[in-house]
Amino acid sequence: MSQEPHEDCPPPERKVPGRQDNPPCPLYLTTVPEFIDCVCRTLVWSRLSLRQVEERAAEYGGLPRSTLSYMTRRKTLPPEHQLRAFVYACKIGNHWENWRITRDAIEQEEFTRRSKR
Q1: CA–CA separation, 105 vs 28, rounded Å?
Q2: Which helix (H) or strand (E) covers residue 50, if one does?
Q3: How many domains does the chain have?
Q4: CA 103 to chain centre
Q5: What are the b/e assignments for 7-30, b being 16+ CB within 10 Å?
Q6: What share of residues in the chain are helix, strand, coil (percent, to 5)?
Q7: For residue 57, is it within any domain?
Q8: How far apart are the first and last CA of the chain?
Q9: Is 98 inside a domain boundary?
């Protein structure tokens, strides 16, 4: 299932001034490290503390601070339910499909690469 990028998601090569309405966009990412970096940049962009994200994420299935902290340091993709709680807690739920599509594509690519070994 393909989807056009959300209009607020610029290609990575296009510089976007300021924070205003431009959260980091995952749509053009192709690797796990890039994806995790985007999670970190989104947390910074949100200007929310880990505690605030945890409190807001409770409404979307929960995301403990310890899990969120681990999400920013991990070497693998976060589970979809944790990522969804994070995206909605960071006030960018309208971008959820972009996050899900990118996560699924990277996961499939990682699976394909591992199975060829």
Answers
A1: 11
A2: helix 50-57
A3: 1
A4: 8
A5: eebeeeeeebeeeeeebbbbbebe
A6: 55, 0, 45
A7: yes
A8: 27
A9: yes
What are the tokens at 113?
Answer: 């690469």
**Per the domain annotation, does 21 fall within a domain?**
no
Q: Report CA dihedral (33, 36, 42, 43) to the nearest 10 degrees.
A: -130
Handedness of CA 44, 23, 88, 91 (dihedral sign): positive
Rounded-to-integer distance, Cα 46 and Cα 70, Å: 18
86 and 39 Cβ atoms separated by less than 8 Å? yes
pLDDT in tens, the chain (117 residues): 334 444 445 454 544 444 456 899 999 999 999 999 999 999 999 999 999 999 999 999 999 999 999 999 999 999 999 999 999 999 999 999 999 999 999 999 999 888 887
Closest C-alpha among 24, 1, 44 to residue 11:
24
